[in-house]
Amino acid sequence: MNLLQPLALWALPLVALPVVVHLLHRRRHRVVEWGAMMFLLDGERSSRGRQRLREILLLAARTLAVLALVLTLGRPIAGGWAARVAGERLDMVVLILDRSSSMGEEVSGLPESKLAFGLRGAGDALAIASPRELVVVDATRPGEVLRPEGVDALRELAFDEATSASSDLLAAFETAAGYMEEAGAGRTEVWVLTDAQREDWNPEDGRWEAVAQELTKASGGAGTRIRLTTFPEVADDNLAIRVEGVRRESEGEAAALVLDLVVTRAAATEASGDTAMRVPVAIEVGGARTTVEVELTGKEGRLVGHRVVIDPQLEAGYGAAALPTDRRAGDDRFWFSFGSTPVVETAVFAQSAAVASVVSVAARSPAGPDVIHEVRRLVSGAGADVDLDGVTFLVWQAPLPEGEAAAEVTRFCEAGGVVLFLPPSSPAGGSFAGLGWGQWGLVDQTDRESAVKTWRADADLLASGADGTPLPVGEVALRRVCSIRSVGDAPVARIPIAGLQGGQALMTKSALGRGAAYFLGTLPEPRSSDLATQGIVFMALVHRALDQAAAALGSEEQQVASASERWLEERWSVAASDRPDSLAERGRRAGVLTDGEVFVALNRPLAEDSSRPLPAEALTESLAPLDVVVTATRTASEGASLLDEVWRIFLLLVLGALIAEQLLCSPEGSAPGRSEE
User: Fold this and answer.
1) Domains of the chain with bracketed CATH
2) Which residues does residue 284 pair with via DSSP β-bridges, in sequence order?
3) pLDDT tens digits, one per residue of 409-420
4) What is the mean pLDDT of residues 156-184?
5) Mean pLDDT of 665-675
């Protein structure tokens, strides 16, 4: 027998209470000899055996009632021998672990992380359930399947420490379903330990429906139950730090790093309101340590342009900004690296020299002192040999790429790059990412039906400014427009960005992996539009595309921790880390990697700092129509069970014992609750 509340066993001595009361009750009676009773006693001797049996049954019913009540309070769970007797032993348990940074937060009331606490409970549950096969999927590396031989082997895997990478729970479920189908699993349960963050779960993804169908199919009709142990509680006083910008500046023989620091709080309480607090931040560079205070009002505090003096001989290196340790240690330190001023490169592949010139001017315009913008002009006509190594933003004004060129541009987009397609002089066939060119058409300047009427002002390349000021897209004068057509049923999202009043698309986006392909139906040249002379709209469009691509690709010196195979290459070694590094964990731990020349800082995804746990309803809806059981664990006292509680059975035993006691107490020959007249 296993109990979630074993302290209830201290009440087991109460089981003897009915026996004690029975013995005391017998000692109360005095024996008085009375001659007239001798005839009645002679008649009673014949039924004494039945009376004794009745007393024994009555005592057993009362004892059983007390015992079942004590066990009910202990919250017994099903498993082990009880499950095998019931014929419900599990054939397979698939354990999916969310090891994202936020799972490293301590459980309220315990010096133990959510992941370690949940994994300890899962180990205890596995020892009880004793499935025939155990499968483990790490959601930060969802493509791999591990098969530990028992609970002890699971503990040896040391999965109780959170990483700095994000989790992909959808991919983990896909891996689990694929393995279950291949292994021919029978009665299977999928156990999940997660804090149910929206970014890790991604409930809007349309693949969840297919995953639910695959899990149903994989069980072969035997049934698959999903057990989610969630940790939705977030410490309101949790603080997180990040470095938004770092650059090295030289002044004569002196040198300094210029840092932009941001400190955020998980939730500002009503009591705190706008009350300011000063948070100490320790900055470590090259073995030197300095401390600065950041004023935090509400949920966020910023310190922009903080200068840290460094050794002028230190051309490249790394450092960290750290907060005092709190319940979530994973966001209390942010690593950064520095070197020469980063370069953002734009590649232009254009038939028109005028178009290439306008794009080059717009791309080279400085957006800040900490970035160098360069432009590479690709030779028109060499479409089969497109070299996009180091390119951030690609502008393509030529027939759409085909063959190897199309494959190279596709890889570029999927990795996070952005390409802007401009119509060629003579549009031909072909397509890219489900879009292609139609025909050029002149715009009647007196016909307002062809003016720019709609554009996305809330997001993307034509969004309004930070202060809400809209771009003057509606004032752009168009002289000719090339139509944009959809081609085939490619499984890509086609998003309208701008359109003419008559309904014709002026700009459309196709999402490809982490990047995107944009089609703009006019050219920045006097013959087609005034985008070149008006300047504002096209300049904003180009720099937002550069920013979007730079954010997706990431500079070489600042990267998000991930399970990318590139970090396992021999050239990378660990220069610094929050935790001891192993080859398997490399790249998924916050720290700094180096190849001897370049330092790359790895940190948690910024989405981890703004925890947004999903409600239980959203989780069950994602996996509908599967049988989903959600257990929300907020504090250590609540515990976390991945097995069924069977206290209701013992409560029924209490009720049954009390009914039996009532029947045994009733006078013979009468129904309970009725008295003879």
Assistant:
1) 2-78+649-665 (no CATH), 87-231+632-643 (3.40.50.410), 239-340+556-609 (2.60.40.10), 343-553 (3.40.50.880)
2) 289, 320
3) 998 888 888 999
4) 90
5) 55
